[in-house]
Design goal:
The protein has helices at 10-19, 86-95, 109-119, 124-129, 131-134, 138-167, 175-203, 206-211, 214-221, 224-227; strands spanning 2-8, 37-43, 48-53, 73-79, 232-239, 242-249. The chain has 253 residues and is of the alpha+beta class.
């Protein structure tokens, strides 16, 4: 479930509450009226336009200005996701072949290993794909590849026991227990990945890190709890026109 609470123009709401029909313009960007003369007609005899002086010219006081006050309000959104959880779908796809009448061949331990390692945020592949954009030096590329090999060894040490157990499962197995094992292994792999982030950033210069796409920097900057998809998260974002607060409440699939 995702709950979102958005407060639009809270200053305007407070202005209306305190000042009623004579608002002070809180929460509204007032700009002076730039129009001095308003054309009202054309005098054919003198071949001249006729103008009236705009009495609101240069006016910035909300009580006298003609522009509308920015709206204010409170919106509560609730979204419920009824789809099967990502971890459950992944586990079913890996274990369905060769079991319970499925004629497809079972996935071997190396195949399962590769699939689950790919499901972890592999930062090196997209980073090295940007080598031209980042102007990575040969030394930087070598350093990143060395880190990748060390990361892979550690992740394999976590995933190998899991995938060995998955490959040996019979047709009937405890899905809840295996799902818990998968979550624990993925969480450990994410923590390993996060531990390598400072070492990756040390390879890049500040300019190169600034060129990285926003999503990439976001992944590198998250804490492991977020990377393992914890079930609670909360965000607060103030903006010039109001503020937005979002609460994500997840339930285990």
């Amino acid at each position: 479930m995702t709950l979102g609470l958005q407060v639009a123009n809270p200053a305007g709401a407070l202005d209306r509450l305190l000042h009623g029909r004579a608002p002070r313009g809180w929460g509204t960007n007032w700009t002076p009226d730039p129009v001095l003369l308003v054309p009202r007609g054309f005098d054919a005899a003198t071949q001249r336009y006729v103008y009236d002086v705009n009495p609101q010219f240069g006016e910035t006081r909300p009580s006298r200005a003609t522009q509308p006050i920015d709206p204010w309000g409170i919106t509560l959104d609730a979204r419920v996701d009824f789809s099967t959880g990502e971890a459950v779908q992944l586990l079913r796809r890996q274990l369905a072949p060769g079991r319970n009448g499925d004629t497809r061949p079972r996935l071997t331990q190396p195949q399962l290993q590769e699939r689950y390692v790919r499901s972890i945020g592999h930062l090196w592949v997209p980073l090295l794909a940007l080598s031209d954009t980042l102007l990575l030096t040969p030394q930087q590329v070598d350093s990143l590849r060395t880190l990748e090999l060390a990361w892979r060894r550690q992740v394999d040490s976590v995933m190998t026991p899991l995938t060995t157990e998955l490959a040996a499962l019979p047709d009937a197995y405890d899905g809840a227990a295996m799902l818990a094992r998968v979550r624990a292994a993925r969480g450990a792999a994410w923590r390993i990945t996060h531990e390598y982030v400072p070492r990756m950033r040390a390879v890049l210069s500040p300019v190169q890190y600034g060129i990285l796409p926003g999503y990439f920097r976001e992944i590198m900057g998250r804490e492991p709890a977020e990377l393992t998809r914890d079930y609670w998260s909360w965000a607060f974002e103030p903006t010039p026109g109001g503020m937005t607060s979002t609460l994500n409440v997840g339930t285990p699939p």
